[in-house]
Design a protein that fits this description.
CATH class of the largest domain: Alpha Beta
CATH superfamily of the largest domain: YerB-like
Oligomer: single chain
Distance between the termini: 73 Å
Largest sheet: 11 strands, mixed
Shape: globular
Strand content: 25-35%
Radius of gyration: 23 Å
């Protein structure tokens, strides 16, 4: 039987009433807060940042590629600026026992990142996991810059893009070069959007994992790294030995997740100004991994089958290890060094 115009109008009104009743009922069930029934009903799958797993600021993931910046960690370069603003930070061994950082931004931004230093051989291998990413650095030897070009990254070399970097007169050179995300993202190709997701995330606490209060990663005397769990702040706090690793604004370096990727490190034929060979961290292949989140440790493995693939972290049963939504530090830790931890 054909429905009359009056009948169709009654049906539409009925649907509106039902939807309204669902929403009112959801509010009565505590839908005002995050994760409430209304939030799940109306925003079942809110957009999330690809490199943190957090809900995107303003309800939309920024339409821009990942931006990686090379940051120094020699004691003379501290305190740094902008590390707590990064979505992901990689720490890698360089010459003479020191380390440097690759700070990666996408949903996040930083008005100042300091001090920016030169690139190393494995940087291209690390950063190309983020697709056609931007990589800002203070230069590099020809073999390093050739590797960056081969990785099809947007190479924001200070030598070519000097106008996007500044020198801090209150600090000694060369530990005083700084930049900003806004100054660098303007060079992003218009066609390039967000990077691929690197990790899996969920908020479920790994209750079967071992409780751990600290982890010690002695790269060297220069970089004697400790991460300590803060139950109060629900983050891992970073130290150099017993000294808190603080930034220029006085805040301590912190992370929701610390991922220790145990890698083979060999010496390359590249030397620094002092004639010291530059180490090369092998980030393609497989090896042991430790994932620290929520005050607990999950032991597993990492694997990456090729340079065009991302790194996967799995537990002893072969299941992908999810991280807590938030920022992550990845420690590219030499396999001939020992990882210690305790509760």
């Amino acid at each position: 039987m054909a429905m009359t115009r009056r009948g169709r109008l009654s049906s539409i009104v009925g649907i509106v009433v039902i939807v309204g009743a669902v929403a009112v009922g959801a509010l009565a069930l505590g839908g005002k807060g995050p994760g409430g029934l209304v939030d799940r009903f109306v925003h079942k799958n809110p957009p999330r940042c690809p490199l943190t797993g957090q809900i995107a600021p303003g309800g939309a993931v920024p339409n821009r590629p990942a931006l990686a910046v090379k940051v120094e960690n020699l004691p003379e370069s501290r305190p740094q600026t902008g590390l707590n603003d990064a979505d992901i930070v990689f720490e890698e061994p360089v010459e003479a026992g020191i380390t440097r950082f690759i700070a990666v931004y996408q949903c996040s931004s930083a008005s100042r990142i300091e001090p920016v230093r030169s690139a190393r051989m494995e940087d291209a291998d690390v950063v190309r996991q983020f697709g056609h990413a931007l990589f800002a650095h203070a230069g590099g030897v020809p073999k390093v810059t050739d590797r960056l070009h081969a990785a099809h990254l947007v190479d924001l070399n200070f030598i070519k893009y000097a106008s996007d970097f500044l020198r801090d007169p209150s600090r000694l050179a060369p530990h005083n070069l700084y930049t900003s995300t806004s100054g660098l993202w303007k060079h992003a190709p218009k066609k390039d959007g967000p990077p691929p997701v690197l990790f899996t995330y969920n908020r479920d606490k790994p209750t079967t994992a071992r409780r751990v209060a600290w982890v010690h990663l002695p790269f060297s005397d220069y970089s004697d790294v400790y991460w300590r769990w803060s139950q109060k702040s629900a983050v891992w706090l970073r130290y150099h030995g017993t000294v808190p690793h603080t930034l220029s604004d006085g805040s301590q370096v912190r992370a929701k997740n610390v991922v220790v990727q145990v890698v083979k490190v060999t010496l390359s034929q590249i030397t620094d100004v002092n004639g010291v060979n530059s180490p090369f961290a092998h980030v393609v292949g497989h090896g042991k991994a430790y994932v620290f989140r929520n005050g607990r440790m999950i032991v597993g493995r990492w694997s990456r089958s090729g340079l065009n693939e991302t790194t996967t972290f799995t537990d002893r049963q072969g299941t992908v290890i999810p991280l807590m939504p938030g920022n992550t530090w990845v420690e590219l830790y030499p396999s001939d060094h020992k990882v210690t931890f305790g509760s």
